[in-house]
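Hi Y.,

Following your request, here is the sequence exactly as I used it, all 146 residues.
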Amino acid sequence: MKHLFLLVVCCVAATDGRGQWVEPPQFEWARTVNSPTEMYFEGMEVGEDGRVYVCGFFKDQICFEDTICFFTTGQQYDDDIFVACYDSTGSLVWAKTFGENSEDRARDIEIDQNGNILLAGRFSHTVWFDQIPAIPYGPAGLFSRS
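Below is the corresponding structure, written out as tokens. Let me know if you'd prefer a different format.
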């Protein structure tokens, strides 16, 4: 089983004119995300409230904190999108997946000034975001979802 460690380093530091750290960064927390096949973290954003949001895509299965597992919704080894939120101490707040029978990939995530999650990526068949379908026009589609 593959393991990926989600590392978040929050620091306030500066470098001197020679590129040396004036104050070393402080390690805050790390979490493990597991998958028996492949997973890719593509984006990370920290909200004003200190929550950390991550996105990416996975094949077959993905498990957060070894207890919350998701499986791809399409055929075996299709890519599906994942989005997860951790609080400022590294505890998982929630995780969601989206996808259908194709390569569905989240590539970036942003949090706007109102706390809305903006997700960008690509897909090649209809993808359902909760009850809202995203339908591509042509061989592939791009999405941006809040």
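The radius of gyration is 17 Å.

Thanks again,
Q.
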